[in-house]
Amino acid sequence: MIDLSVNLAGIKLKNPLILASGILGLDTASLKRVVRGGVGAVTMKSLTAEPRQGHPNPILVEFEGGFMNAVGYANKGIEVGIKEFGQWNEEVPLIGSIVAGSAHEFAQLAEKIQTIPIRALEIVLSCPHTPGYGLLAGQGTSKATAKITKAVRKKTKLPLIVKLSPSVQDIGNIAKAAEEEGADAINMGNTLGPGMKIDIERASPILSFKIGGMSGPAIKPITIRSVYDLYQAVKIPIIATGGLKSGADVIEAIMAGATAVGIGTGIYYRGINIFKKVCREMEKWLVAHSYKNLLSLRGLAHNS
Amino acid sequence: MKNVYQTVKIIRVEKETVRVKNFVLDTAIKAKPGQYVMVWLPRLNEKPFGIVESWPMMLSVAKVGPFTKAFHQLKKGDQLTFRGPYGKPFLIKKGNLLLVAGGYGVAPLYFLARSLPPARRKKLTVVIGAKTKLELPFVTKFKKLGCRVLLSTNDGSVGFKGFTTQLADELLKKEKFDGVYSCGPLMMMKRIAELCYRSKMFCQVSMESFFKCGGIGLCGECSFKGHLVCKEGPVFNGSILVD
What we know:
The complex is a heterodimer of chains A (about 300) and B (about 240). With about 300 residues, chain A is α/β, with parallel strands linked by helices. Chain A has helices spanning about 30-35, 80-85, 105-115, 140-155, 170-180, 220-235, 245-255, 265-270, 275-290, and strands at about 5-10, 10-15, 15-20, 40-45, 60-65, 65-70, 95-100, 120-125, 160-165, 185-190, 190-195, 200, 205, 210-215, 240, 260-265. In chain A, the strands form four sheets. Chain A has an eight-stranded parallel β-barrel with strand order 3-4-7-8-9-10-15-16, surrounded by six helices. A four-stranded antiparallel sheet of chain A has the order 5-6-14-11, with no helix packed on it. Chain A is globular. The model of chain A has no long low-confidence stretch (mean pLDDT about 95). Chain B is α/β, with parallel strands linked by helices and about 240 residues long. Chain B is built from six helices and 15 strands. The longest helix of chain B is centred in the C-terminal third of the chain and has 13 residues, at about 185-200. The mean pLDDT of chain B is about 95.
């Protein structure tokens, strides 16, 4: 009997696969479909203090190795979000996600969102394409990460996940800063970049915001390397997110040191049932290699 | 890579009604009735448009906001950039079909009628409704195909005075159809879907929604009761609208 379950900062997941934030997470009905697709936990699309329109279209463009997006945090705001997700009654855990411009605002949102049945809270300090948030607000430094993590930690007892960017050099120290201020897990990470794609017939960048965060298969090696680095830098669990879409990809991330794995763009390539497919692939591999669970694989690549 | 932009020339612009223009493009598209493309106007926005004809490709655009206002300013010879086709097409039944269109919702239904061989077009009954006579699109085009065309206007300026749903209700009571297809305002399609559901008649609706990623199916913006309109639609069985 193969056991795919994992313990992520005290939350038991039936499998290590988490729906990444920003994918199909605007409403409960969509998240419930992802639950039926076999996911271990779902993350809502990040909520802001006020409703946001986001950037005009195009907000997503395909390139050879995946997609680039600049959605600009289109969401209905924390008040509507709390109502939308407040009735979550699935066994599969719901992870809350918030973004804000300052530590103070993050703390306010954390206080509000913990009133609904979320099992963990993710704070995102790493968006590469929205003025006033994430990297464009200077949140991708150790100092800012420490300050924001500390402020949120004071307001909630929920397991706290800090989502970092793969686009900065200093990730080890940034993750350490989050760990020291009480983070329970690191999500590594957000989209890479920003990048740009120009349509040569129109001589114009395609994304309306011109630049966007890269996701999909092209960024997988960066995810693996970042997780590998973090596994040596911090003791708290790591969620590997970025370009992972098969059972082999997930096993690779776990060997690098991940406890769980975020999947987003993979849904485009393999459908909403990607979670069931990846679980079957992992089970097959584990059986073929005489492993009984995922714990025995974690960080294995560090022994070589 | 599937989601690639194509830039083509506009070869003709036709005025359809006071609000609607048809844009004929210097390209053909391999698409089925009910599918749509995402049209990108650089530095402005990107929106979905139902395909009206595939060869040459034609789009029909009603002026409803800033995007379509800019679209209407395009002229013969100008470039148009789009990606697609996207979406699930209509499942076209054999036999007598009833098409119910509200305003510019007529576009994908015209593609459906066009795609049938001439003999079958004569078995089509098309109900087109609008506020006034001036806003009824595609009446001549459907008549040219040999379809039976019934009109309704809210002000009674031509045809039946009232709503398409009343006209469709009467038709469904009197005649037998093998399939009903509807596109237009949500409340109209809901009513049509309910009428068909009650009489156990096959019915499909083409839904409209705000799209962001548009056809990719990742952002979730267009979710309707958990169904992705951009990818799993825009055509759904009418039961999606029946509570």
